[in-house]
Amino acid sequence: MNKQPKLTLVGAGPGDPELITLKGVRVLREADVVLYDALANEELLEYAENAEKIFVGKRRGMHKFMQEKIQDLIVEHALQGKHVVRLKGGDPFVFGRGSEELKYVIQKGIEIAIVSGVTSAIAAPASFGISLTQRGVNESFRVITGTRSDLTLSEDVEAAANSNTTIVVLMGMSKLEKIVNTFKAKGKHDIPVAIIENGTKKQERLAVGTINTILEIVNEKGLSNPSIIVIGETVKQSEKLYSQILKQKEKSI
Which is catalytic among the residues 6, 37, 91, 173? Predict the structure, then answer.
Protein backbone atom coordinates (compact mmCIF):
# COMPACT_ATOMS: atom_id res chain seq x y z
CA MET A 1 0.00 0.00 0.00
CA ASN A 2 1.27 3.47 -0.88
CA LYS A 3 2.13 5.84 1.94
CA GLN A 4 1.52 8.85 -0.28
CA PRO A 5 -2.20 9.41 -1.05
CA LYS A 6 -2.70 9.38 -4.81
CA LEU A 7 -5.48 9.69 -7.38
CA THR A 8 -4.99 8.69 -11.00
CA LEU A 9 -7.70 9.71 -13.43
CA VAL A 10 -7.90 7.16 -16.26
CA GLY A 11 -9.83 7.34 -19.51
CA ALA A 12 -11.37 3.91 -20.17
CA GLY A 13 -11.91 4.53 -23.87
CA PRO A 14 -15.14 4.31 -25.88
CA GLY A 15 -16.26 0.81 -24.92
CA ASP A 16 -14.09 -1.74 -26.70
CA PRO A 17 -11.83 -3.02 -23.88
CA GLU A 18 -8.87 -3.12 -26.28
CA LEU A 19 -9.10 0.63 -26.81
CA ILE A 20 -7.71 1.56 -23.41
CA THR A 21 -4.10 2.78 -23.41
CA LEU A 22 -1.19 0.66 -22.23
CA LYS A 23 -0.58 3.24 -19.53
CA GLY A 24 -4.20 2.90 -18.39
CA VAL A 25 -3.76 -0.87 -18.06
CA ARG A 26 -0.55 -0.44 -16.03
CA VAL A 27 -2.22 2.00 -13.65
CA LEU A 28 -5.18 -0.34 -13.11
CA ARG A 29 -2.76 -3.10 -12.17
CA GLU A 30 -1.17 -0.80 -9.59
CA ALA A 31 -4.45 0.38 -8.07
CA ASP A 32 -5.62 -0.23 -4.51
CA VAL A 33 -9.13 1.09 -5.22
CA VAL A 34 -10.96 1.63 -8.52
CA LEU A 35 -14.01 3.88 -8.75
CA TYR A 36 -15.64 3.24 -12.13
CA ASP A 37 -18.48 4.74 -14.15
CA ALA A 38 -21.36 3.14 -16.03
CA LEU A 39 -19.69 3.84 -19.39
CA ALA A 40 -16.41 2.15 -18.43
CA ASN A 41 -16.32 -1.43 -19.72
CA GLU A 42 -16.31 -3.72 -16.68
CA GLU A 43 -13.96 -6.10 -18.48
CA LEU A 44 -11.20 -3.58 -17.71
CA LEU A 45 -11.59 -4.30 -14.01
CA GLU A 46 -9.89 -7.65 -14.61
CA TYR A 47 -6.60 -5.73 -14.81
CA ALA A 48 -7.15 -4.44 -11.27
CA GLU A 49 -6.79 -7.87 -9.67
CA ASN A 50 -5.80 -6.64 -6.21
CA ALA A 51 -8.01 -3.56 -6.02
CA GLU A 52 -11.32 -2.88 -4.36
CA LYS A 53 -13.86 -2.03 -7.08
CA ILE A 54 -16.58 0.53 -6.40
CA PHE A 55 -19.30 1.37 -8.95
CA VAL A 56 -20.12 5.09 -8.96
CA GLY A 57 -22.25 5.46 -12.08
CA LYS A 58 -24.57 8.44 -11.82
CA ARG A 59 -28.32 8.05 -11.81
CA ARG A 60 -30.60 10.32 -13.82
CA GLY A 61 -31.47 13.43 -11.83
CA MET A 62 -28.90 12.68 -9.12
CA HIS A 63 -25.77 14.10 -10.75
CA LYS A 64 -24.94 16.74 -8.17
CA PHE A 65 -25.41 14.47 -5.17
CA MET A 66 -23.47 11.65 -6.78
CA GLN A 67 -20.60 13.92 -7.84
CA GLU A 68 -20.11 15.13 -4.28
CA LYS A 69 -20.26 11.57 -2.97
CA ILE A 70 -17.72 10.38 -5.54
CA GLN A 71 -15.28 13.11 -4.56
CA ASP A 72 -15.66 12.26 -0.90
CA LEU A 73 -15.02 8.57 -1.63
CA ILE A 74 -11.83 9.43 -3.52
CA VAL A 75 -10.53 11.50 -0.63
CA GLU A 76 -11.58 8.95 2.00
CA HIS A 77 -9.66 6.12 0.36
CA ALA A 78 -6.67 8.18 -0.76
CA LEU A 79 -6.09 9.56 2.73
CA GLN A 80 -5.77 5.98 3.95
CA GLY A 81 -2.56 5.87 1.90
CA LYS A 82 -4.14 4.15 -1.08
CA HIS A 83 -3.64 4.62 -4.80
CA VAL A 84 -7.14 5.44 -6.06
CA VAL A 85 -7.92 5.05 -9.75
CA ARG A 86 -10.92 6.92 -11.12
CA LEU A 87 -11.95 5.05 -14.28
CA LYS A 88 -14.17 7.11 -16.59
CA GLY A 89 -15.61 6.22 -19.99
CA GLY A 90 -14.01 7.77 -23.07
CA ASP A 91 -11.66 10.60 -22.17
CA PRO A 92 -12.27 12.11 -18.72
CA PHE A 93 -11.76 15.65 -19.99
CA VAL A 94 -14.53 15.43 -22.61
CA PHE A 95 -17.75 15.99 -20.64
CA GLY A 96 -16.37 13.67 -17.97
CA ARG A 97 -16.05 16.19 -15.13
CA GLY A 98 -12.52 14.95 -14.61
CA SER A 99 -11.11 18.38 -13.86
CA GLU A 100 -13.72 18.94 -11.14
CA GLU A 101 -12.60 15.84 -9.28
CA LEU A 102 -8.93 16.72 -9.64
CA LYS A 103 -9.41 20.25 -8.35
CA TYR A 104 -11.29 18.91 -5.36
CA VAL A 105 -8.69 16.34 -4.33
CA ILE A 106 -5.62 18.56 -4.74
CA GLN A 107 -7.13 20.83 -2.09
CA LYS A 108 -6.80 17.86 0.26
CA GLY A 109 -3.08 17.50 -0.44
CA ILE A 110 -3.50 14.41 -2.61
CA GLU A 111 -1.07 13.68 -5.44
CA ILE A 112 -2.70 13.42 -8.87
CA ALA A 113 -1.94 11.88 -12.26
CA ILE A 114 -3.86 11.82 -15.54
CA VAL A 115 -4.07 9.10 -18.20
CA SER A 116 -5.94 10.26 -21.28
CA GLY A 117 -8.42 7.98 -23.01
CA VAL A 118 -9.73 7.50 -26.53
CA THR A 119 -12.83 9.68 -26.77
CA SER A 120 -16.04 8.11 -28.05
CA ALA A 121 -16.77 11.32 -29.96
CA ILE A 122 -14.18 10.24 -32.54
CA ALA A 123 -13.90 6.47 -32.00
CA ALA A 124 -17.59 5.58 -32.27
CA PRO A 125 -18.08 7.21 -35.71
CA ALA A 126 -14.70 5.83 -36.82
CA SER A 127 -15.80 2.28 -35.99
CA PHE A 128 -18.21 2.60 -38.93
CA GLY A 129 -15.82 4.55 -41.15
CA ILE A 130 -17.60 7.86 -40.58
CA SER A 131 -15.11 10.70 -40.85
CA LEU A 132 -15.59 13.94 -38.95
CA THR A 133 -13.51 15.97 -41.39
CA GLN A 134 -12.93 15.46 -45.07
CA ARG A 135 -11.03 17.46 -47.64
CA GLY A 136 -13.36 19.47 -49.84
CA VAL A 137 -16.35 18.81 -47.57
CA ASN A 138 -15.60 20.50 -44.25
CA GLU A 139 -12.62 21.82 -42.33
CA SER A 140 -13.59 21.22 -38.72
CA PHE A 141 -15.88 19.40 -36.32
CA ARG A 142 -17.57 20.39 -33.11
CA VAL A 143 -18.32 18.21 -30.08
CA ILE A 144 -21.20 19.32 -27.88
CA THR A 145 -23.37 17.88 -25.15
CA GLY A 146 -27.06 17.53 -25.89
CA THR A 147 -28.15 17.66 -22.26
CA ARG A 148 -26.99 20.01 -19.53
CA SER A 149 -26.62 18.98 -15.89
CA ASP A 150 -30.13 20.32 -15.18
CA LEU A 151 -31.42 17.97 -17.95
CA THR A 152 -32.41 20.81 -20.30
CA LEU A 153 -31.31 21.08 -23.94
CA SER A 154 -27.86 22.58 -24.31
CA GLU A 155 -27.78 26.10 -25.75
CA ASP A 156 -24.86 24.97 -27.92
CA VAL A 157 -27.29 22.97 -30.09
CA GLU A 158 -28.73 26.13 -31.64
CA ALA A 159 -25.26 27.57 -32.20
CA ALA A 160 -24.23 24.29 -33.83
CA ALA A 161 -27.25 24.41 -36.12
CA ASN A 162 -26.02 27.76 -37.44
CA SER A 163 -22.65 26.35 -38.46
CA ASN A 164 -21.47 24.25 -41.39
CA THR A 165 -19.11 22.03 -39.42
CA THR A 166 -19.69 18.39 -38.55
CA ILE A 167 -21.53 18.22 -35.23
CA VAL A 168 -20.99 15.41 -32.75
CA VAL A 169 -23.55 15.31 -29.95
CA LEU A 170 -22.86 13.35 -26.78
CA MET A 171 -25.62 12.62 -24.26
CA GLY A 172 -28.22 13.78 -26.75
CA MET A 173 -30.60 10.87 -27.38
CA SER A 174 -33.18 12.01 -24.83
CA LYS A 175 -33.21 15.37 -26.64
CA LEU A 176 -33.09 14.01 -30.20
CA GLU A 177 -36.48 15.41 -31.20
CA LYS A 178 -35.56 18.86 -29.90
CA ILE A 179 -32.21 18.70 -31.68
CA VAL A 180 -33.92 17.74 -34.93
CA ASN A 181 -36.46 20.56 -34.55
CA THR A 182 -33.66 23.06 -33.91
CA PHE A 183 -32.01 22.14 -37.22
CA LYS A 184 -35.35 22.18 -39.04
CA ALA A 185 -36.01 25.69 -37.73
CA LYS A 186 -32.80 26.73 -39.54
CA GLY A 187 -34.06 25.18 -42.78
CA LYS A 188 -31.55 22.30 -42.59
CA HIS A 189 -33.90 19.43 -43.36
CA ASP A 190 -31.64 17.33 -45.59
CA ILE A 191 -28.41 17.30 -43.61
CA PRO A 192 -27.18 13.70 -43.16
CA VAL A 193 -27.34 12.23 -39.67
CA ALA A 194 -25.77 9.09 -38.19
CA ILE A 195 -26.51 7.64 -34.78
CA ILE A 196 -24.15 5.07 -33.28
CA GLU A 197 -25.39 3.04 -30.32
CA ASN A 198 -22.82 1.29 -28.11
CA GLY A 199 -20.03 2.45 -30.39
CA THR A 200 -16.98 0.13 -30.65
CA LYS A 201 -18.67 -2.61 -28.59
CA LYS A 202 -19.75 -5.97 -30.02
CA GLN A 203 -23.41 -4.91 -29.85
CA GLU A 204 -22.88 -1.57 -31.62
CA ARG A 205 -25.58 -0.46 -34.06
CA LEU A 206 -25.86 2.26 -36.70
CA ALA A 207 -28.77 4.30 -38.01
CA VAL A 208 -28.31 6.72 -40.92
CA GLY A 209 -30.78 9.24 -42.30
CA THR A 210 -31.34 12.99 -42.53
CA ILE A 211 -32.72 15.59 -40.17
CA ASN A 212 -36.12 14.91 -41.77
CA THR A 213 -36.01 11.12 -41.41
CA ILE A 214 -33.79 10.21 -38.49
CA LEU A 215 -36.49 10.19 -35.79
CA GLU A 216 -38.55 7.64 -37.70
CA ILE A 217 -35.48 5.50 -38.41
CA VAL A 218 -34.40 5.54 -34.76
CA ASN A 219 -37.89 4.52 -33.65
CA GLU A 220 -37.96 1.67 -36.18
CA LYS A 221 -34.58 0.35 -35.04
CA GLY A 222 -35.25 0.99 -31.36
CA LEU A 223 -31.96 2.77 -30.74
CA SER A 224 -31.39 4.30 -27.32
CA ASN A 225 -28.58 5.33 -24.95
CA PRO A 226 -25.65 5.22 -24.93
CA SER A 227 -25.53 6.69 -28.42
CA ILE A 228 -23.63 9.36 -30.30
CA ILE A 229 -25.24 11.64 -32.87
CA VAL A 230 -23.23 12.83 -35.88
CA ILE A 231 -24.70 15.58 -38.05
CA GLY A 232 -23.00 16.74 -41.24
CA GLU A 233 -22.13 16.10 -44.86
CA THR A 234 -19.24 13.81 -43.97
CA VAL A 235 -21.84 11.20 -42.98
CA LYS A 236 -23.05 11.04 -46.59
CA GLN A 237 -19.49 11.10 -47.91
CA SER A 238 -18.66 8.07 -45.72
CA GLU A 239 -21.49 5.93 -47.15
CA LYS A 240 -19.24 3.51 -49.06
CA LEU A 241 -17.14 2.91 -45.98
CA TYR A 242 -19.93 2.29 -43.50
CA SER A 243 -21.82 0.14 -46.01
CA GLN A 244 -18.76 -2.08 -46.44
CA ILE A 245 -18.13 -2.22 -42.69
CA LEU A 246 -21.76 -3.18 -42.03
CA LYS A 247 -21.46 -6.05 -44.54
CA GLN A 248 -18.30 -7.26 -42.83
CA LYS A 249 -19.93 -7.11 -39.42
CA GLU A 250 -22.93 -9.09 -40.67
CA LYS A 251 -20.64 -11.82 -42.03
CA SER A 252 -18.82 -12.12 -38.71
CA ILE A 253 -22.02 -12.66 -36.71
Answer: 37
